[in-house]
C-alpha cells in the first residue's frame, strides 16, 4: 500500500534520495547538522508511516551509538580539556578522559543513527523489486544475484526457525551435529536445484537484459529529485568547507555561524517538503 510520496516515487529516484540523505551525516561531523538530519528523519518517518520501523531500529541503534561513544572516550587520548584523570597503566601510561573525546564519541553516535535512519527509508519505502529490475538492466548477473540474496534471506531464516523448533521437539537434546549438517546441506542443495531450474525456465540463461518499461515522471519523482540534488549540494558544501566546520581535536571547534544555520534550514526544508504533497496518495 502506498503510504507516502516516497512510496509513490519510482525506485531509482527514491533510492538516490535515500543515498543523498545518508551522504550528509557521512560528510558532516557538525553536531547541529547531525541533530538536524536526525530531526528531519524522525519527521519523515512519521509522515511516511514508518514510525514502527524507526522505533524498532532505535531500540538497538541507540545502545549501539552509546557503546561507540563510550569506546571513543576510553580509547582516545586526544583532546586538551581533561575531565578527570584515570589510573596510570604501565603499558599505556596516564589514562585521561577528555571533553573532546566525549564530544567526538557523541558525534560518531549521532552519525551512525543518522545513517541508520536513511537506511530505514531505503529498506522500507523504496520498491526493492523495481530497484533490482533497474540494476538488472545495467548488469544482469549482479541484479539476479542481489534479487536472489534478498529473497533467499527470508526463506533461509524461516528454515532455520523450523529446524530449531524441530530440534526442541526431539528427546535427549535433539539430533547430533552430523545429522543437523546433513539436513542443512540436503536442503540447501535441493533449494539450489529448484532455483536454477526456475531461472532456466524464465529465460535467464539466454543472457538478455529485461525490457525497459517506460513510465512518465510524476510530480513526486521531480520533488524528490530536486531534494536529492539539494542534499548532495549540502554534503558537498561541508566537504568544501563552506559550512558545517568541525574539529574535535585538540580543542573543540564547531561554530554555528550564518552559513551553517542556513544549511540546516535548507536541509530541513528540502528533506521534509516533498512529503507535504499527498495528493493522490
From TrEMBL:
It is a multi-pass membrane protein. Its main location: membrane. The keyword Transmembrane applies. The keyword Transmembrane helix applies. Keywords: Membrane, Transmembrane, Transmembrane helix. The chain crosses the membrane at residues 32-50, 62-84, 104-126, 222-244, 256-276. It is found in: Membrane. One of its GO terms (cellular component) is plasma membrane. It comes from the Bacteria. This is Energy-coupling factor transporter transmembrane protein EcfT. It comes from Solirubrobacter ginsenosidimutans.
Amino acid at each position: 500500500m502506498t503510504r507516502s510520496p516516497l512510496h509513490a516515487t519510482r525506485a531509482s529516484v527514491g533510492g538516490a534520495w535515500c543515498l543523498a540523505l545518508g551522504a550528509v551525516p557521512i560528510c558532516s561531523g557538525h553536531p547541529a547538522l547531525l541533530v538536524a538530519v536526525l530531526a528531519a528523519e524522525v519527521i519523515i518517518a512519521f509522515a511516511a508511516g514508518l514510525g514502527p520501523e524507526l522505533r524498532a531500529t532505535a531500540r538497538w541503534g541507540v545502545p549501539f551509538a552509546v557503546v561507540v561513544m563510550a569506546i571513543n572516550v576510553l580509547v582516545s587520548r586526544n583532546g586538551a580539556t581533561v575531565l578527570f584523570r584515570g589510573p596510570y597503566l604501565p603499558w599505556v601510561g596516564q589514562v585521561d578522559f577528555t571533553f573532546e573525546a566525549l564530544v567526538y564519541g557523541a558525534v560518531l553516535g549521532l552519525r551512525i543513527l543518522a545513517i541508520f535512519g536513511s537506511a530505514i527509508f531505503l529498506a522500507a519505502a523504496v520498491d526493492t523489486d523495481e530497484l533490482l529490475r533497474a540494476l538488472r538492466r545495467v548488469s544482469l548477473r549482479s541484479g539476479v544475484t542481489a534479487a536472489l540474496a534478498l529473497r533467499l534471506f527470508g526463506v533461509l531464516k524461516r528454515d532455520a526457525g523450523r529446524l530449531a523448533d524441530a530440534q526442541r521437539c526431539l528427546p535427549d537434546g535433539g539430533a547430533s551435529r552430523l545429522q543437523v549438517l546433513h539436513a542443512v546441506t540436503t536442503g540447501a542443495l535441493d533449494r539450489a536445484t529448484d532455483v536454477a531450474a526456475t531461472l532456466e525456465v524464465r529465460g535467464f540463461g539466454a543472457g538478455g537484459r529485461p525490457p525497459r518499461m517506460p513510465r512518465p515522471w510524476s510530480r513526486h519523482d521531480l520533488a524528490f529529485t530536486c531534494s536529492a540534488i539539494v542534499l548532495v549540494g549540502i554534503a558537498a558544501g561541508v566537504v568544501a568547507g563552506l559550512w558545517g566546520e568541525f574539529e574535535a581535536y585538540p580543542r573543540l571547534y564547531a561554530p554555528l555561524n550564518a552559513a551553517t544555520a542556513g544549511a540546516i534550514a535548507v536541509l530541513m526544508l528540502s528533506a521534509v517538503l516533498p512529503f507535504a504533497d499527498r495528493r493522490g496518495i
